[in-house]
Design goal:
Elements: E1 2-6, E2 11-15, H1 22-27, E3 30-32, H2 41-44, E4 51-54, H3 57-60, H4 69-88
The structure holds zinc ion (ZN).
Length: 118
């Protein structure tokens, strides 16, 4: 597995085998399968079809151990930021691309409150 970066601002793509597909998926990468909706950031950056990619450094950082030199350079600044924030907020990490339900989002209306927080 190899993480690459192209362009500025950097767009990241991953060289990975079919068997490894769960890794970029879990990291929040998108599959570049063709039939792109325009504008497609991956096509614009010249990224080939049939690879995993992301324009988000916070997602690419999750695979930094696989980064090549260009990807490392593109991630370096972000890593410093992440390291600083982890130092103060180590317990909580929200997965990339996953949107947590707002608190109370599953609350059943019981008729006593009558108003919504949303
Ligand atoms: Zn595309």
């Amino acid at each position: 597995m190899r993480l690459h970066a192209v362009g500025a601002p950097a767009v990241f793509w991953l060289e990975a085998s079919y068997e490894e597909r769960a890794v970029p998926k879990a990291a929040g990468f998108w599959w570049h399968g063709g039939n792109c909706r325009q504008p497609c950031g991956a096509c614009k950056a010249g990224i080939a079809l049939k690879v995993w990619w992301t324009p988000k450094r916070e997602c690419a950082t999750r695979l930094v151990e696989h980064a090549d030199d260009a990807a490392n350079a593109a991630l370096a600044e972000h890593q410093a930021t992440v390291a600083a924030s982890r130092a103060t907020d180590a317990a909580v990490e929200i997965p990339c691309g996953v949107h947590a339900l707002p608190e109370g989002g599953r609350r059943v209306r019981d008729g006593t409150g009558g108003h919504s927080d949303r």
